[in-house]
């Protein structure tokens, strides 16, 4: 029987020669942070963010950082730690995330790397003659939502941000010279509100409302455009570079609301992911057979019981 320690005890993730690392990837808005927390509260873990905008301080609402109260006490690295005016390069990410992985494994915990900036992830895993691969075994979990459903969710999410004082959060980051090429000002939402902030004091209320609606539509459009780009990169990593990436279809979750959505998440995303991770950590010989195509194969009752913490 696989016994997963869900009580916060140290987890021995050290294997002969290599450590274990879990990656949670997917387009923006698909629930990656939620899954990473689910896994981290089941397998004693710490989380490393690989979203190139969320690494910066500021714009917590606009960049959709997971709030501290939702982190459930799980330590996070590279989340809102970088000066908002500085760029954070691929080299910076490789150096900082590698150090974080070493620190986490030294504490006998599992590093979970989560985010949407797949170029960062690719740089980390395939850089410098594949040094990462020589030191770590890694498992990629892809939380996927079909684009029409995700587009609808993005629109709802932007509305929620708007009601959560998004405009007030954005205002200090308005740049009179229109330079949104560095640091956190590259975030979707900042350049889209440029015209609104530039003209809000000099136009009538009707025009101001029209500018606001246009900015919101631009945010929705550019977020979906970014999601498509992120998906394209995942397909390239899987189909061209031949990364083994385990897809979990969260679409049915996003078609539900309230308690039904939470139940669907547990059944279709959280529990299957926990089973895949359990086999990755404790039963590596069978890991290649855990997933066939897009469907997670059923595990034994003992694995299911252990994985549903």
UniProtKB/TrEMBL annotation:
Identify the EC number(s): 2.5.1.112
Keywords recorded for this protein, A-Z: ATP-binding, Cytokinin biosynthesis, Nucleotide-binding, Transferase, Transit peptide
**What cellular component GO annotations does this protein have?**
mitochondrion
Q: Which reaction does it catalyse?
A: dimethylallyl diphosphate + ADP = N(6)-(dimethylallyl)adenosine 5'-diphosphate + diphosphate; dimethylallyl diphosphate + ATP = N(6)-(dimethylallyl)adenosine 5'-triphosphate + diphosphate
Q: Which GO terms describe its molecular function?
A: AMP dimethylallyltransferase activity; ATP binding; ATP/ADP dimethylallyltransferase activity; tRNA dimethylallyltransferase activity
| Xref: Pfam families | IPPT
- Supply one GO BP term: cytokinin biosynthetic process
- What family is this? Belongs to the IPP transferase family.
State what this protein does: Involved in cytokinin biosynthesis. Catalyzes the transfer of an isopentenyl group from dimethylallyl diphosphate (DMAPP) to ATP and ADP.
Name recorded for this polypeptide: adenylate dimethylallyltransferase (ADP/ATP-dependent)
Instruction: Provide the taxonomic classification.
Output: Eukaryota, Viridiplantae, Streptophyta, Embryophyta, Tracheophyta
């Amino acid at each position: 029987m696989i016994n997963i320690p869900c009580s916060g005890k140290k987890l021995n993730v050290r294997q002969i020669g290599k450590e274990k690392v879990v990656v949670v990837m997917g387009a923006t808005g698909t629930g990656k942070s939620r899954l990473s927390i689910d896994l981290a509260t089941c397998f004693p873990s710490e989380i490393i963010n690989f979203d190139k905008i969320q690494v910066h301080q500021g714009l917590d609402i606009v960049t959709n950082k997971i709030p501290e109260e939702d982190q459930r006490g799980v330590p996070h690295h590279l989340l809102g730690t970088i000066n908002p005016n500085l760029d954070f390069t691929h080299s910076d990410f490789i150096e900082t995330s590698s150090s974080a992985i070493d620190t986490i494994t030294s504490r006998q915990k599992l590093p979970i790397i989560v985010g949407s900036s797949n170029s960062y992830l690719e740089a980390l895993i395939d850089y410098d003659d594949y040094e990462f691969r020589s030191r770590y075994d890694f498992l990629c979990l892809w939380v996927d939502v079909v684009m029409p459903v995700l587009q609808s969710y993005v629109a709802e999410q932007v509305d929620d941000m708007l009601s959560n004082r998004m405009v007030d959060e954005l205002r200090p980051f308005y740049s009179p010279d229109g330079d949104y090429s560095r640091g956190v000002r590259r975030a979707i939402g900042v350049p889209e509100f440029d015209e609104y902030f530039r003209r809000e004091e000099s136009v009538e209320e009707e025009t101001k409302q029209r500018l606001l609606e246009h900015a919101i539509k631009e945010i929705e459009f550019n977020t979906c455009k970014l999601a498509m780009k992120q998906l394209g990169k995942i397909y390239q990593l899987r189909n061209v570079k031949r990364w083994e990436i385990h897809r979990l279809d969260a679409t049915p979750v996003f078609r539900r609301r309230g308690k039904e959505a939470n139940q669907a998440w547990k059944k279709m995303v959280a529990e299957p992911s926990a089973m895949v991770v359990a086999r990755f950590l404790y039963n590596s010989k069978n890991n290649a057979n855990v997933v066939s195509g897009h469907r997670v194969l059923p595990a034994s009752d003992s694995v299911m019981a252990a994985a549903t913490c």
